[in-house]
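Render this sequence as a predicted structure.
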Amino acid sequence: MNQPKNINMNRGAAILTLIFALLFFVLVIRFLYLQTTGEVNGEVLAARAQEQYERKRTIEASRGSIVDRKGEVIAEDTNTYTLIAVLDEKMTTSPKKPRHVFDPEETAEKLAPLLDMENSEVRDILEKDADQVEFGSAGRNISHSLKVKIEKLNLPGIGFIRDTHRYYPNGTFASHIIGYAQREEGTAKTVGMFGLEKSLDKYLQEKDGYMAFEGDKQGFKLPNGEEKIVAPDNGDTVYLTLDQKIQTFLEDAMNEAAEEYEPEKIIGIVADPKTGKILAMGQRPSFDPNVRDINNYYNDSVAYPFEPGSTMKIFTVAAAIEEGVFNRDELYKSGAYKVEGGRIRDHNKTGWGTITFLEGVQRSSNVAMAILAKEKLGPDRFMNYMEKFGLNQKTGIDLPNEANGVFNYKYDIEKVTTAFGQGSTVTPIQQVQAATAIANGGKMMKPYIIDKIVDPDSGKTVKENKPQTAGTPISEKTSKEVLDILETVVSSEKGTGKPYKIEGYSVAGKTGTAQMAGSDGRYLTGRNNFVFSFLGMAPKEDPELLVYVAVQKPQLKDTETGSMPVSTVFNSVMKNSLQYMKIQPTEEAEEETEKAETEVGSELPSFEGESVEAAQKWLQDNKMNAVILGSSNEVSEQYPEEDSRLIANGRVFLKTDGKMTMPDVTGWSSRDVMKLANFLDLELEVKGNGYAVSQTIKKGERVQKNDRLTVKLQSPAGASGDETEESKEAETE
């Protein structure tokens, strides 16, 4: 009876054993296959395991910074925050500690003032049917200080996402040079959109790094797990030739002129004529790259050709001198000059009778230039010099969108009007490059604005610019003679450049007043429809700075001339820049008072170690004024130094130990103010001409090294600022 049952059990056991044997065999085969190939369903198991346990964290890189020649930041990445609100009720697990916005009304009431939004706007956002919301542009780029204020409100559901933002710390500062960069829509990538930010984007772009490690399911690193770190590649640092101080002088002066005269345009360039470095460049209207309130996407200094007016006469005279056909004492008849196709007239219509060519340059005579170009040089030779000065081709400056002017040189009258800056067009940067030959001993320097590009991670210089000669259109002898003549344009009573005199420095330069053409091609009429300009170099003996300023269509009052808005910019920028560069004055300052004596005093002894009383007595006996700086009774330093000679009533600065306080500089000349600033190592800014009437550091206030002192000067009552205003006109018959 038990035998069939045992047989069935044995048969079942055999079947199960066979099944398990087959499964084992399949598993073994599968195991061997996996071990051999490392793949399953086409997927590499090692990679899957790596993905299962490997964790990756991004190491953020920064976009490259743009800095001035001394490393002062102009554009950089900075951390900002985006404000968010959590609206999902599921985020709150404890009613006592809500993690979502449960009271939109109260939250809106507290947030709205900080975001500069209406309560209703904020409330509408907080009542949206969404899990999480942002607050638009008002909630982006939140600064750290505003973030702290919002956090102190302890509002449930309100939080922040850290972000990186392109920041321009100086606001409206060389904006058309720098341009701007912004985040691309839908990505976290910052790209250059305009200016150097765009043209140098390949250098400024960053590349994030990462850290990869083996971790558990919660993301924590395993104790003995492997890790891999790829360092971030930060964008390169771009060093410009711009000087932040000189650029600030230019920006401030343009702001002042723009506010007072409301012109269509202002263009300003400051260059080092020995190297071609652009130290400052700006225009009005401008924009703040943080706000991007842009109404003109062109850098007018390089992309705006226009008829330059009489600044072109600089190069006409230089060509005539180089060719030996300019005789400053030769006489000619001013007033009008007939050429085929029209009649050239001087700007006062009638001229000044028979005068010398030197006086013709000083008075900015069109007729003088017409004779030089047509009779003395000849059209072909004259145009050859315009080409040598690079006025018919781009300079190649390292800025985007440089334009080229147009030389209209077909008809006889055009060949003459070009000599005084009418009919043909050039850009401001073309004029600046050409003028470097005048200021630099005949060597014309190519302008550039990028000094070097450096990899901040390795310190390696990726790209570097060096001064480059763009040609030698004239000799050193000619350049010096042109400078001498241009200096008389400013210093002579007959010169149109009288408003550009700067106390203590000899300025060589030329005014320009160019008519503007209307939509019909005819020149506009009216005293405001001009581009007024000045191209000047200083000090004349060895120019260190070249400054070009142009003001288009300023709103002048009946008593004002076109030189007033231009000199507002030029004089301020040139004077402050020379003083900032510690370039010593080259001329004696004007008398301090009408009663000032002019005889030379005795040689100064050394007062160091002497008592203040003894030094004061000696100076008083020798008709000199002591300025005591310090609170001690013993002189530790003096200026001028021992053995110097000083005119009567001159000031001698005596420094003692102890607290240094500011003297009253009212009535001082700018020369004495500059001496004081140099002696005390102060950062000086001088506004106006004449004698000091106000100072930002008051008398008796303590002063320290590098304190900023601004002194306003004013000419004595009755001083004349009249000039001969020039306008350019070529009448055709």
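Summary. Confidence is low (pLDDT under 50) at residues 40-51, 587-600, 717-725, 727-733. The longest strand covers residues 73-86.
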